[in-house]
Amino acid sequence: MAKCIHCGDDESVEIHEVYGYRDFLLDTCCESFHKDVVDFLNKDPKTAAKWLMGLSDGILLQMQQPKLRRVIDDGLGSLMLDWNLTLVPVEQRTAKEFVKRHHRHCPPPAGWRFGAGVSNGNGNLIGVIMVGRPVARTLNQNEILEVNRLCVRDDIPQGLVWNACSLLYGWASKQARQRGFKKIITYVLESESGTTLRAAGWVPELKTSGGSWNRKTRQRVDKTTTQPKIRWTAPWCQDQFTLQPENLGATA
Predict the structure, then answer these.
(1) What is the pTM of this model?
(2) In a 3-state reduction of DSSP, which class is residue 249?
(3) Based on the domain organization, do 201 and 99 belong to the same domain?
(4) What's the pLDDT tens digit per position in 156-167?
(5) If phi over 0 gives left and psi between -120 and 50 gives alpha, with beta otherwise, what is residue 122?
(6) Same structural domain for residues 58 and 145?
(7) Which residues contact 238 (CB under 8 A, 6 or more apart)?
(8) Do residues 236 and 203 touch, judged by C-beta distance below 8 A?
(9) Is the residue at 226 inside a domain?
(10) Which residues pair with 68 in a beta bridge?
(11) What is the pLDDT of residues 114-125, one digit of tens each?
(12) How many CB atoms lie within 10 A of CB 181?
């Protein structure tokens, strides 16, 4: 058996305990070697998953979870199993309750055509997407869809929701096309990067001027932010164009 380069004892690592569906503890010969093992687990997830399966004598296989995606740090110094994301069906009521509890600055939308959720390993929702009619009255309500709300949990380690947003955006785009709509759009705050939209293949289309929805002829109470936003659309959509950086000042 090899000697540990840190403590000089025999290298030793074993799964000390597995509890719940995500958490486990490793027992190693010393703290420094424990750090080396953690770095290894995070560097090569596929190899790490196979290694863990063998190390645990099949205990992870007995948990009957989806395929292991990564091993992450929970931010508090403990390792955590990150399972492959799974799209799951959700009802409107469930999606609205999720948004009401977890969205940072917007309430649940009233409209609904379809939606979906995403889970990480145990069936519990970590994110939802709600697709409905366009909020702007000038847009064609029969040919265009809008992602009215996308929300992922921010009260769990963020490694667990990695790629969840782009997965949901990609699903919504595919659904809109299959259902015969000509376009699907969504809006994000100007201050947001849009990284998850780009990862799903969406493109920025125009910048709105922001402002209140309240008008003398149509009294409204603003329930969401009135900041300027960027409108994004899926790449297959008709009449879409890419908003170039020099055109970010264009408004609609």
Answers:
(1) 0.77
(2) coil
(3) yes
(4) 999 999 999 999
(5) alpha
(6) no
(7) 182, 183
(8) no
(9) yes
(10) 83
(11) 999 999 987 789
(12) 19
